[in-house]
Structure to design on (218 residues):
């Protein structure tokens, strides 16, 4: 390469760098002026995965499973008297599946996640049921609670566990012989994860509950 050619190359690179800098500065200024400047956000809490589990107090040939795809979305659901929403607000889906060996049929229910709170390897979440397969339980429109314990990576993820707010764990005793099992479930309310996973597994991504947004951001 000749000295003259080298000078031309350096000049071209300098001009390109100046153009990129100008473009970047212009874009940043434009974003700032429009109020849409992007800010990097840390990953929020979440629960994902699908697994079969067994009831420790009732052994049968049925196959029960939950599938979760839930993620935190803090302060996204305004409530009466709480216009900012809650730090536990969340979005996503829950799918409940129960294969009845006696009837040789699988019942399913799907729900919309409305609350999620996590700890280290643990989570509770709730979902309002929006769809139930024919013959399924009468839970349409009801909020159900779920809990998850993420036992970590391992063969079959056999250390994972789940819990849920029906099947005898959310009674509302009234003194009657047959207490109702359809007691209301509040947001993020669920029992401890008491049922062992037998196949599949879950991943809990923990994040602390964030403070309310500043008034200017509401």
């Amino acid at each position: 390469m000749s000295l003259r050619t080298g000078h031309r190359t350096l000049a071209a690179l300098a001009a390109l760098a100046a153009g990129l800098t100008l473009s970047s500065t212009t874009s940043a200024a434009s974003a700032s002026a429009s109020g849409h400047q992007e800010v990097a956000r840390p990953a929020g809490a979440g629960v994902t995965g699908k697994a079969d589990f067994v009831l420790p107090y009732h052994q049968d040939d049925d196959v029960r499973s939950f599938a979760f795809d839930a993620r935190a979305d803090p302060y996204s659901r305004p409530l009466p008297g709480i216009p900012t929403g809650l730090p536990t607000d969340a979005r996503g889906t829950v799918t409940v599946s129960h294969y009845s060996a006696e009837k040789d049929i699988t019942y399913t229910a799907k729900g919309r996640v409305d609350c999620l709170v996590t700890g280290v390897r643990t989570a509770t979440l709730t979902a309002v049921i929006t769809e139930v397969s024919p013959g399924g339980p009468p839970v349409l429109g009801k909020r159900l609670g779920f809990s998850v314990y993420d036992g970590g990576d391992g063969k079959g993820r056999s250390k994972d566990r789940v819990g849920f707010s029906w099947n005898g764990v959310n009674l509302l005793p009234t003194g009657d012989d047959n207490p109702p099992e359809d007691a209301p479930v509040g947001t993020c309310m669920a029992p401890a994860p008491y049922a062992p996973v037998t196949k599949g597994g879950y991943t809990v991504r923990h994040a602390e509950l964030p403070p309310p947004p500043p008034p200017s951001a509401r």
Residues 1-41 have pLDDT under 50 and may be disordered. Strands lie at 46-53, 63-72, 90-100, 105-119, 122-132, 143-149, 161-164, 195-205. Residues 7 and 62 are 78 Å apart (CA to CA). The chain has one helix and eight strands.
